[in-house]
């Protein structure tokens, strides 16, 4: 029965019956109520599907617009990451969160959630416990963001441009950024995806800097799928005659995203929430609230724009 429910959820998400938010909700309901043995497989598949889905979404975007948005968002991303890392580590010290989980939670919030944590864990010599605490904290908050950000955006009457930029700057994982922006509109999706991927590229310099500080020889994980995404956008812009095929690939990307969010949801169990612990969760919540509020304020005032 457990196995059947798991694969039923995948089928419903892949067919488009479950939208990305509903797919995540179904995954959370499954993970929090049912014990299943597919955590490792779900984690590996969700990582691949997310990257493949982002590449497919690239076929539905304009290259010139992506370059413009990426260039405009670079400075905001750099300043935002610096601010989030400094504030996150300060909160970790004040709340007496361990140095390694505090750093990983800060990096996950500042850069790109679980991907940043997975990339930085080897170079910080993080223990399994530190990884579990950090991932649990970020994944729980990341899931909440997918549901509340569109509601806040509509309540504040944010334009698609404003919402796309805010999502990219304030939501942890690429999956939830894309999922939230897709609910808001095509323009929001294009801006959010581009700025978020530009933000994800900071995994490389942050990982290299961390490796130098820790004198680690662990292999740095490079986000190659971002390069493939750019190639897909360029290909679609140079060969517009294949537009019907590009639309199908973009649709496939949205379906893949729904499956990804279902799989991510199944990985959040009662043990995940419990193991996150109170202090790391408080650090994650405070850091996220400040980053999200500050970026929203700056966007509404027009000081951050695309």
Description:
The protein has helices at residues 2-15, 20-33, 39-58, 63-94, 99-120, 128-155, 160-170, 174-184, 186-200, 203-214, 224-238, 243-266, 270-276, 278-300. The chain has one domain (61-257, 275-300). The longest helix has 32 residues, at 63-94. Helix 4 runs antiparallel to helix 5, helix 5 (99-120) crosses helix 10 and helix 8 packs across helix 12 (243-266). It is mostly helical and 306 residues long. It is globular, with a radius of gyration of 18 Å.
What's the tally of helices?
14
Mean pLDDT: 83
Helix content: over 70%
Radius of gyration: 18 Å
Order of helices and strands: HHHHHHHHHHHHHH
Instruction: Give the overall form.
Output: globular
Quaternary state of the chains:
single chain
Main sheet properties? none
Question: Strand content of the residues, in percent?
Answer: under 5%
In angstroms, what separates the terminal alpha carbons?
Answer: 49 Å
Helix-strand category: mainly alpha
Low-confidence stretches: none
Total of domains? 1
Number of strands: 0
Q: Would you spell out the secondary-structure blueprint of this structure?
A:
Elements: H1 2-15, H2 20-33, H3 39-58, H4 63-94, H5 99-120, H6 128-155, H7 160-170, H8 174-184, H9 186-200, H10 203-214, H11 224-238, H12 243-266, H13 270-276, H14 278-300
Helix pairs in contact: 1-2, 1-12, 2-12, 3-11, 3-12, 4-5, 4-9, 4-14, 5-6, 5-10, 5-14, 6-8, 6-13, 6-14, 7-8, 7-9, 7-14, 8-9, 8-12
């Amino acid at each position: 029965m457990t196995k059947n429910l798991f694969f039923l959820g995948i089928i419903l998400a892949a067919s488009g019956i479950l939208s990305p938010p509903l797919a995540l909700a179904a995954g959370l309901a499954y993970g929090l109520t049912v014990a299943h043995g597919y955590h490792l497989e779900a984690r590996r598949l969700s990582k691949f599907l997310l990257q493949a889905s982002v590449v497919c979404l690239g076929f539905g975007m304009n290259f010139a617009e992506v370059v413009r948005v990426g260039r405009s968002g670079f400075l905001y991303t750099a300043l935002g990451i610096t601010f989030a890392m400094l504030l996150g580590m300060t909160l970790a010290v004040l709340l007496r969160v361990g140095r390694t989980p505090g750093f990983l939670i800060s990096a996950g919030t500042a850069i790109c959630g679980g991907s940043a944590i997975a990339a930085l864990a080897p170079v910080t010599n993080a223990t399994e416990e530190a990884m579990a605490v950090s991932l649990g904290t970020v994944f729980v908050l990341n899931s909440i963001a997918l549901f509340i950000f569109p509601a806040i955006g509509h309540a504040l009457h944010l334009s698609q441009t404003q919402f796309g930029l805010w999502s990219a700057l304030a939501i942890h994982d690429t999956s939830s950024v894309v999922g939230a922006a897709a609910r808001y509109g095509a323009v929001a999706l294009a801006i959010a995806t581009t700025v978020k991927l530009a933000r994800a590229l900071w995994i490389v310099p942050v990982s290299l800097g961390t490796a130098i500080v820790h004198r680690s020889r662990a292999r740095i994980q490079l986000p190659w799928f971002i390069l493939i995404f750019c190639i897909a956008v360029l290909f679609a812009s140079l060969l517009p005659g294949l537009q019907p095929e590009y639309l199908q690939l973009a649709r496939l990307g949205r379906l893949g995203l729904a499956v990804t969010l279902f799989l991510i949801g199944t990985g959040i169990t009662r043990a995940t929430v419990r193991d996150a612990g109170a202090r790391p969760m408080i650090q994650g919540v405070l850091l996220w609230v400040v980053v999200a509020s500050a970026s929203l304020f700056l966007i509404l005032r027009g000081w951050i724009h695309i």
